[in-house]
Write a structure and sequence with these properties.
CATH topology of the largest domain: Rossmann fold
Helix content: 25-40%
Number of strands: 8
Order of helices and strands: EHEHEHEHEHEEHEH
Strand content: 15-25%
Number of helices: 7
Number of domains: 2
Structural class: alpha/beta
Largest sheet: 4 strands, parallel
Shape: globular
Strand order of the largest sheet: 2-1-3-4
Distance between the termini: 33 Å
């Protein structure tokens, strides 16, 4: 019997189709790694996408391609599923909460070389959860890669633009390449006179489909308490 998984991301409200197409490509890569599963994709920004992703399918799991747990994973995604008439679907822990993603961040820094790292994250003025995750990852990078690592944010302090006089590499702690990655991070680092290289966001690494496939197979729900940031 075929099992079902839906990967959900935020998307780009002003132009939802490119992000939707990129997520569909990711879903196809994940499906190739999980025989017996059908893996579909939907962004919250694209009207009707979640309904299409779950329509006519038996209950399955939803994998949030988000960097943190919170309102999107606990409120909006379940609400969208309910609107689509989807019954019995389980929302899994988000991408950014997965310890294997944190392992990948450490590996990416080691592979990039250099002795100094900026971990660029979104942050939030409303909740400490997003920054808690980023700071945890920055601490792991520093301890395990043997580098200095500072977390900087777009939406809270310390802002990226305030991290002046830095060299080395910047790793964007983001799931996809949207406007924050292509525009906001380079602009903030330029303001900080950053002398270094900006790596692709962690969510674009070739090892990510395997991490998502493993998470789908584990099937840990976001409300299980297994992730200390899923609140």
């Amino acid at each position: 019997m075929t099992r079902h998984a839906l990967i959900v991301a935020h998307g780009q409200p002003s132009d939802p189709r490119p992000a939707g197409a990129a997520l569909e490509l990711l879903a196809a890569k994940v499906q190739a790694l999980v025989p017996g599963w059908e893996v579909t994709a939907a962004t919250l920004a694209e009207p009707g996408a979640i309904a299409r992703g779950v329509g006519g399918r038996a209950a399955g799991v939803v994998y949030p391609m988000f960097m943190t747990g919170g309102w999107f994973t606990r409120v909006q995604i379940p609400a969208k599923l309910a609107e689509a008439g989807a019954v019995g679907w389980t929302v899994l822990e988000p991408f950014g909460c997965d310890p294997f993603v944190h392992d990948l961040c450490v590996d990416l820094v080691r592979e990039a070389g250099g002795a100094a790292v900026i971990l660029a994250a979104h942050g939030s003025f409303k909740s400490s959860v997003p920054s808690d995750i980023a700071k945890h990852v920055a601490q792991r990078i520093a301890a395990e890669a043997g580098v200095t690592c500072a977390a900087g944010f777009i939406d809270q302090e310390p802002q990226l633009a305030s991290l002046t006089g830095r060299t080395g590499v910047c790793l964007p702690f983001f799931a996809a390449e949207g406007g924050h990655v292509t525009d906001d991070i380079p602009a903030a680092l330029a303001e900080a006179s950053f002398q270094g290289r900006i790596l692709p966001p962690v969510g674009l690494d070739a090892r990510v489909p395997g991490i998502i496939a493993a998470a789908i197979m584990r099937g840990e729900p976001v409300c299980s308490g297994a992730c200390r940031w899923a609140r």
